[in-house]
């Protein structure tokens, strides 16, 4: 009998929980992208949302609460790309991945893989590689700095 494999974070590699998290990331991407597109806070977008998956809400609220810290970290690791030059989709996906790496305890490898899958689904032809490169650098920087244990840990993570 084959049993589903669990990651160290307790997510099913194949199954309902894993799929649900992926769907939540897609929904969070919509919130982050729409907010960026309209030039307003993510919280304003969430207020208008009729329904939001709890994890999608955690992601969106977490990014909103830590936007300066996340954008600074991302900007440091994307020296050749000004964040304003990134596509809105790529930038939104990178923010989601960076938030998961820094504030949730999710392994960087899983956070990066999930972000790359979003980039392949919603971004341009080179988005997957671009997102992977920046988030790998973010994860390395976080690991070196010890940011995976920030003083003010996000309560939703």
What's this, in brief?
The protein has about 160 residues and is mainly α. It has helices spanning about 15-40, 40-50, 55-65, 65-75, 90-105, 110-120, 125-145.
Keywords:
157 residues; mainly alpha; N-utilizing Substance Protein B Homolog, Chain A; 66% helix; globular; single chain; disordered N terminus
What would your notes on this structure say?
The chain has 157 residues and is an all-alpha fold. It has one domain: N-utilizing Substance Protein B Homolog, Chain A (Orthogonal Bundle). Helix content is 66%, strand content 0%. It is built from 7 helices and no strands. It is globular, with a radius of gyration of 15 Å. The protein starts with 15 loop residues before the first helix and ends in a 12-residue tail after the last helix. Mean pLDDT is 84; it is low at 1-15 and 150-157.
Number of helices: 7
In this structure, how is the largest beta sheet organized? none
| Average pLDDT level | 84
The outline comes out as: globular
- Judged by helices, strands and strand pairing, the structural class is mainly alpha
Specify the helix fraction band: 55-70%
Low-confidence runs (pLDDT<50, min 5 residues)? 1-15, 150-157
**Which percent band covers the strand fraction?**
under 5%
Radius of gyration: 15 Å
CATH class: Mainly Alpha
Lay out the secondary structure:
Layout: H1 16-38, H2 42-48, H3 54-65, H4 67-77, H5 88-103, H6 108-122, H7 127-145
Helix pairs in contact: 1-2, 1-3, 1-5, 3-5, 4-5, 4-7, 5-6, 5-7, 6-7
């Amino acid at each position: 009998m084959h049993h589903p494999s669990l990651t160290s974070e307790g997510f099913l590699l194949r199954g309902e929980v894993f799929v649900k998290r992926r769907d939540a990331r897609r929904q969070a991407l919509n919130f982050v992208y729409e907010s960026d597109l309209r030039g307003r806070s993510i919280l304003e977008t969430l207020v208008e949302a009729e329904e939001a998956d709890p994890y999608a809400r955690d992601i969106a609220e977490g990014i909103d609460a830590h936007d300066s810290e996340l954008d600074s970290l991302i900007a440091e690791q994307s020296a050749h790309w000004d964040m304003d030059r990134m596509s809105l989709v790529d930038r939104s996906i990178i923010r989601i991945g960076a938030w998961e790496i820094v504030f949730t305890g999710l392994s960087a490898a899983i956070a990066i893989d999930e972000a790359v899958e979003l980039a392949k689904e919603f971004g341009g032809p080179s988005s997957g590689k671009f997102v992977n490169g920046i988030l790998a650098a973010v994860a390395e920087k976080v690991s070196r700095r010890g940011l995976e244990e920030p003083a003010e840990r996000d309560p939703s993570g």
